[in-house]
Design goal:
mainly alpha, two-stranded antiparallel sheet, 7 helices, globular, EC 3.1.1.4
Length: 188
Amino acid sequence: MNHHKKPEQVMQVLGELKDTARPMMISFDEMVTLMTQCKQLEEGRLMRRNKEVGKNGAELTIERSTASKSPFTLLNGIVPGTKWCGTGDIAKNYFDLGTDSAVDSCCRAHDLCPVKVMANSKKYDLVNNSLFTKSHCRCDDELFQCLKKSLPSPSANLMGQIYFNIVQVPCLMDTDKGLQFRSARKNF
């Protein structure tokens, strides 16, 4: 069965969808919940795939710690073994993850945080003159927990150390006065 569609077929299907599948506004909490659910679905899929190929947890840990250690990814600001962890990303699409897919999915979720102020920009009446994007504190907290859960992965440890202990990027916190910057979480 051929699942590949021609560009004109794709455009036709998308054109038909626009009449039935209207975008709808959702809250920040709903968006974060959806992102978490998508990550859980993907984790289940990865576990089933690894089970099918007969790899246990120890084998996967060894494979992750030795694969994709190209110094070029680190020079590009990307943590080795990942495509989403670092300054920007090198992923081709949402589903393109590095060899350390558990850690990479943590960074992908953080990169897609719906509430953030990009580097050297202004949003929500906040000015970010930093070299780094500042995300909502809930997204930073989720990244922290996700990376901790991925230990002893060297990629998780490196990303956690850099983001939370060295760079210490402040985050956006909800207050009575609206969003405000909060000091970074520490002690990864």
